[in-house]
Amino acid sequence: MAKQYDQITPALQSFIEDQPLFFVATAPLSDQGHVNLSPKGYDTFRILSPNQVAYLDLTGSGNETSAHLAENGRITFMFCAFNGAAQILRLYGTGETVLPGAERWDELLAHFPGYRGIRQIIVASIHLVRTSCGYGVPLMELRKDRETMARWATSKGEEGLVEYRGLQNRKSLDGLPAPLAQLYEE
Fold it and tell me: Residue 154 burial (CB < 10 Å; 0-12/13-18/19+)?
C-alpha cells in the first residue's frame, strides 16, 4: 500500500542508502519536449537533510537533467528494491545544478568519493516522499559496478573531458541550455 511523507524518514534513508541504483526524471515545460529518465549508479547519492538530497553527476552523453532544472526546476528520484522486501520509493522536488567553482561546490563535493569525470552536482529540495509496493520489480543481484565510465574518463583526460562537455553537454536534446554552457562562453 502506498504511503506518503513530507520528508525522508530514518527508515526511508536506510532504504535509499542500500540501493546501488536510482533513477532521475525531469521534463521540459514544452509538451513537444522529451521527458528524460536516467539511471544512476556508483556511490553518487547523498541525503543532506530530511528534505534535501544531492547526487554527483558524472560526464555523460547528454545533459538533460541540468537543462530541465534550469528551465523549470522539477525533479523526481526513484529507488527500487531489487532484492529483499519489495518497495519503490519516489522523491519529488525542485532542483538546481551546482557547477565546479560555485560557492557551494567544495562543501558539496566533500560528501562524495573522488570519481573521474565529475561534471556537476545536482541538489534537490524534496517536498513529497512516496512509497509504493514494487511487487512487479524483479529480484536481481548486483555483480559489480561497470568500469567502463572510469576507463573512458581516464582515457579522455581532464582536458579531453572539458572539450567533450563543451561539445556534447551544453544543450538538452530539445535545445534547452544547460548551466554548464556558461563555462564555455567566450
Answer: middle
Separation CA 83–CA 85 (nearest Å):
7
- Per the confidence metrics, is the pTM higher than 0.90? yes
Q: How many domains does the chain have?
A: 1
Q: Give residue-wise pLDDT tens across range 133-186.
A: 999 999 999 999 999 999 999 999 999 999 999 999 999 999 999 999 888 875
- pLDDT the model gives residue 184: 81
Residue at 129 is within a domain:
yes
- Per-residue HEC secondary structure of 18-77 comes to HCCCEEEEECCCCCCCCCEEEEECCCCEEEEECCEEEEEEECCCCCHHHHHHHHHCEEEE
